[in-house]
Amino acid sequence: MGNLLKVLTREIENYPHFFLDFENAQPTDCEREVWNQVNAVLQESESILSGLQAYKGAGQEIRDAIQNPNDMLHQERAWNSVCPLVIRLKKFYTFSLKLEAALQSLLLSLTSPPFTPTQHLEREQALAKQFAEILHFTLRFDELKMRIPAIQNDFSYYRRTISRNRLNNMNLDIENEVNNEMANRMSLFYAEATPMLKTLSTATTNFVTENKTLPLENTTDCLSTMASVCKVMLETPEYTSRFNSEDTLLFCMRVMVGVIILYDHVHPNGAFNKSSKIDMKGCIKVLKDQPADNVEGLLNALKFTTKHLNDESTPKNIRTMLQ
After folding, report:
1. Nearest-angstrom CA–CA distance, 228 and 115
2. Each residue's pLDDT tens digit, 154-183
3. Could you say which DSSP state residue 314 is in?
4. 145: left (phi over 0), alpha (psi -120 to 50) or beta
């Protein structure tokens, strides 16, 4: 990714200067148990992305089957094309549940007393890195998914076929893999424009709700500090000049956008309010200073997956910047 990055969080009152090493951070003994648990999930992430990237869909086979409703050869061909794709979609969905559990473990570690969230991020850099990697994966997954309309078409065909006539002569073993209840949950997941972000937003909201003894500020401060750290990295030539590749820029941008969205979902006033601890104007400017191709999906994520952008309390200049 890049060299060791020194991050000056000078603009945030009372926050210390610290290094946030997104490349080389190794778990300490205190971090190791959670790190191992999360690492087991993250090791699957690249194969999940590869599987999504290689997703071609069964559009032609489905069209042929619909146009030739009495031709069993076409029906079987479409069904046999769709079934392995549905198994793959189930794998993606199941991974989202693992990611949800991993995120909540990290949140608990990075927000619990006696340390402040900033102290946690400074002391437990390996966990901070994993938190960033989850967000990086999430934005990449959702950017890819938005470009593959075949996913919903294939899954709709599967559900219609199962419920309509059960295709007597066809292999229905898949129903053991994707029964009606699983199909309903998967359908809700894939109906979202950004399903992984939605999963993480809900997971973060549930984390706050379920941990009533933990002050809300612990969670929101953890998220706002991460956003500010990434913003400073991106806008300071001293740091960007030390990045080895454009991937590091994209990594920081995705992490910044991811934590902004989570913050906006869990903070009662959201990320765009004047009282927000996130400098939204600065964050959006940093994104807009990058090549448009790199940030279009990220700006859309801020527009369409946040909760408070259209609140009356959102300054007009912020809304204008995102139009």
Report:
1. 19
2. 999 998 888 775 555 455 667 667 888 898
3. S
4. alpha
